[in-house]
Amino acid sequence: QVHLVQSGVEVKKPGASVKVSCKATGFSLSDYGVSWVRQAPGEGLEWMGWISSYKGMTDFAQKFQGRVTLTTDTSTSAAYMDLRSLRSDDTAIYYCARVNYYYGTSMSMDVWGPGTTVIVSS
Amino acid sequence: EIVLTQSPGTLSLSPGERATLSCRTSQSVDSTYLAWFQQKPGQAPRLLIYATLNRATGIPDRFSGSGSGTDFTLAISRLEPEDFAVYYCQQYGSPWTFGQGTKVEIK
Question: Is the pLDDT of residue A56 over 90?
Fold first, then answer.
């Protein structure tokens, strides 16, 4: 069974950092990318960035450039999203998703984790 | 950045009816990089359609996608009770972007 398992709820103060983990089961992260998407309460989906399995290349939405780091550890089949300088408007559910390349013909986020709630509050 | 505009914002329909959801992009999008997702309350999004018209694994054939250029459509031929949800289109040109969503609600 193909799954992504994410770390638990995080409560952080403004200015702090948070690191969310995403563990893959049933497939290898060597063969797929990992994308991160967040959803603020009552809002739509917001793409943050993704990390490719090809040389670990990354791409980010401009608003997150310089504030987020994405990494993967293929030996433990885990991906990580590190968000710094947290603000109250970073309060959201953070999802990781597998990026399937379909043998180079297309791309999609085809498997999603359950989400990690991050609350930023003083 | 490519902006995706979905319409309508809310679609009120009865089970058994056909739903047609629109996604317009601010620039032409490669159709191999356009996807649709379904999200129910309290759940993660689920991939429905990738590359404009390909159903993801396990997605019933009442869901279909079409379109090209700047106009894309998700159709649900006969709404089942479990289809009432929010639907998002999304494109994979850098940076990736989502539409704002269309809520399909029970009339």
Answer: no
Task: Give the tokens for residue A5.
Answer: 């398992």
| Distance of alpha carbon A25 from alpha carbon A22, whole angstroms | 10
Contact between A4 and A36 under an 8 Å Cβ cutoff? The reply is: no
8-state DSSP, A26: S
- In this prediction, residue B102 carries a pLDDT of 98
pLDDT greater than 90 at residue A39: yes
User: What's the CA gap between B66 and A45, in Å, rounded?
Assistant: 22
Amino acid at B20: T
- Burial of residue B14 (number of CB atoms within 10 Å: 0-12, 13-18, 19+): exposed
Return the residue in A1, A35, A45 with the most chain B beta carbons within 10 A, the one to mutate for interface testing.
A45
Extract the tokens encoding A56. 């670990």
In chain B, what residues touch A102 (CB-CB under 8 Å)?
50-51
Tens-place pLDDT, residues B34-89: 999 999 999 999 999 999 999 999 999 999 999 999 999 999 999 999 999 999 99
Disruptive mutation site among B43, B47, B54, B91 for chain A (greatest number of A CBs within 10 Å): B47
- Euclidean distance between CA atoms B19 and B87, whole angstroms: 11
Do A106 and B47 lie within an 8 Å CB cutoff?
no
Tokens of residue A113, six digits = 């984790």
Res A103: pLDDT: 80
